[in-house]
Structure formats: C-alpha cells, structure tokens
Design goal:
Largest sheet: 9 strands, antiparallel
CATH superfamily of the largest domain: ATP-grasp fold, B domain
Number of helices: 9
Strand content: 25-35%
CATH architecture of the largest domain: 2-Layer Sandwich
Shape: globular
Radius of gyration: 19 Å
C-alpha cells in the first residue's frame, strides 16, 4: 500500500446526489433514504474535545464502519440494532430511528474524563458517588453509568440519571430499560474484549426508538466510542503507577493537551503531522485486528460520491 496515496485520498466529505441532503456529524454523513432508512457514510474525519481535526486519518472510516458491524452482530441477542446492511467498507444502511438525546456512558475503570474529575478532588460523577482512595486506571467495584446530554453544538455535558428524569428528557420506564440494556451491553463487550486479551474500560451507547422499540444506533464498542487496555501487564503497570497500554482515542487527546489544546476558547487547533496521522491509522487497525481476530484489508476509494449514488439507488 502506498502510504502517501492513502494520506492524500482520505474521505473528508461526501456529496451523493441520489439521496436527500445529509446531516453531517463529526465523523458521519447521514443521508435520508426514503422515509424509513438512512445511508450512513463513515468518513475519515477524526474529532477530539468536540473539535474535528483539520487533517483526516487514512482508512479510519472503513475500520470504524466494519468494527461497528462486528460489534452490532455480537449484541443482537441483547437488543435490536439499527443495522440493515453493510454494502461498502465505508457505508452502513440503517433503520431510521428517533434518537434519544442522551449518551449512555458506562465506565468500569477510573480513567480519562472520570480520572480528571477525581483528580480535581470531586468524589461524584453524574450523581454517582466515587469510592475514596482509588488510583488512576483502577477498576471500580462495579461499572457505573455516567450519562451525558447530546449537544448539537459545543460540548456534551455530564448529567445525572435523576436530572434526566426530573427534566423529562426520558420517561422513567424507558430510562429503566435503557440502563438495564446498557449494563448488559457492557458485560457482553467486556466478555468479547477479554477473549482477545483486552479490557473494555469504558464506552458510550446511543439508542433510539424504531416503531416504539428501543434500538441500538450509531456505533458500538469501537475505538471512537470505547477505551480498551491490554490485559497483559495491566496490574503491574497499575501498581507501578505507570500509564496503561491502551487502544483508544485517548492518545490523541493526550497529544493535543501536550500541544496546549483542550478545546477551550482561545486555543488554536494544531495540525496533525503526516507521521502522526499514519500512526493513528496503525492504532485503529491494531484495535480492529485485535478485537475481531481478522486482518484489516484497506480499500482505496477513488470516487466515493459515485459509489454512494450507485449504492443508495438500491435502497430508495
């Protein structure tokens, strides 16, 4: 594979003409296909601290899309998913659902955002009490649920379960089902990761309603929505107070913080050097291969818009 060609041919945006105007998220371009389906195109854009980086990551979209397809296939016995078909490495056809405006975050370990809150001296996160005396990356006695509101612009915000109910964001019976499914999904994700020598540290789930039925949407147990540690050496590194060997986007956040960027007002978004972009691709590919046990075979896509027009025609 030609590295330079891959760096140049990243899918940054799409413009399919056969479908309606897409909703463009941080990573995905979502096209309406009639009244009941969506064409979800996973681009090579990458975001951190709620900002889209100026440079894209080769084949990231293909890895995420195929990792999502793998993850969805493993949790179908727990709850329905929005997947209809995966007709292209970058494309998923999905059922159109009414999204629930809450990100359901389950955490098994004190790391990332939870550690930053804990380190600041707080002992509560999203209304959940945090045990005293924990070290960074230490396992919680039981996984905790720390929801966030989904912001259309700017940062998502932590919210407690009680506040979700008090503000009428989700009805009590539906929320009871959401939290029950979330912990079951996390247990399943933990088992899948353990089989491959990984620890599922934390993850977020997005859910919606399809014909009134709670349905898993967006992505599941991917490197964008989840954090993984390697099992091997975890305890040794924990006892020594060393950073964990992990597969997630946290290394990008750490790189940005080293460059003085945390998404705050007045800060300048740094450029990603080509060597760093390629290393990010390699990390994504490593997670895909470790988690699925399958080799990742990248495909150079020369004209994504033409391919989308051809694919979408079959679902309109």
């Amino acid at each position: 594979m030609n590295q330079q060609e891959a760096l140049i041919n990243c899918i940054v945006s799409t413009d399919a003409t056969t479908a309606g105007e897409p909703y463009r998220g941080k990573v995905r371009d979502v096209y309406p296909l009639g009244s009941d389906k969506l064409g979800i195109v996973v681009s090579d854009r990458i975001s951190a601290f709620d900002h889209i980086m100026k440079q894209a990551i080769p084949f990231k979209g293909q890895i995420l899309n195929q990792l999502s397809a793998f993850g969805f296939s493993k949790v179908e016995e727990i709850m329905p998913t929005h997947v209809v078909d995966v007709p292209h490495p970058n494309v998923m056809i999905a059922k159109k659902c009414d999204p629930i405006p809450v990100e359901v975050v389950v955490r098994g370990y004190l790391t990332g955002h939870a550690w930053r809150v804990y380190k600041s001296g707080k002992r509560e996160l999203c209304g959940v009490p945090l045990p005293p005396g924990l070290r960074e990356h230490e396992r919680f006695p039981e996984p905790i649920l720390t929801p966030a509101t989904k912001a259309t612009e700017g940062h998502d915000e932590d919210i407690s379960e009680q506040e979700i109910l008090n503000r009428g964001i989700v009805e009590p019976e539906l929320w009871k089902e959401i939290r029950e499914k979330a912990f079951k999904l996390f247990k399943k994700g933990t088992e899948i990761a353990a089989d491959q020598g990984l620890i599922l540290v934390d993850t977020k789930y997005e859910m919606g309603l399809h014909n009134g039925q709670l349905t898993l949407i967006d992505e599941v147990h991917t490197s964008d929505s989840s954090r993984y540690f390697y099992q091997e050496g975890y305890k040794k590194r924990l006892e020594a107070g060393q950073p964990q060997k992990q597969l997630s986007k946290e290394f990008l956040r750490e790189w940005l913080m080293d460059k003085g960027f945390q998404g705050k007002e007045g800060q300048t978004l740094p450029d990603l050097p080509d060597t760093f972009r390629w290393s990010i691709y390699q990390r994504y590919a490593e997670l895909y291969e470790t988690l699925t046990g399958q080799k990742f075979n990248p495909v150079i896509v020369e004209s994504i818009d033409k391919e989308l027009d051809r694919i979408f025609q079959d679902y309109l």
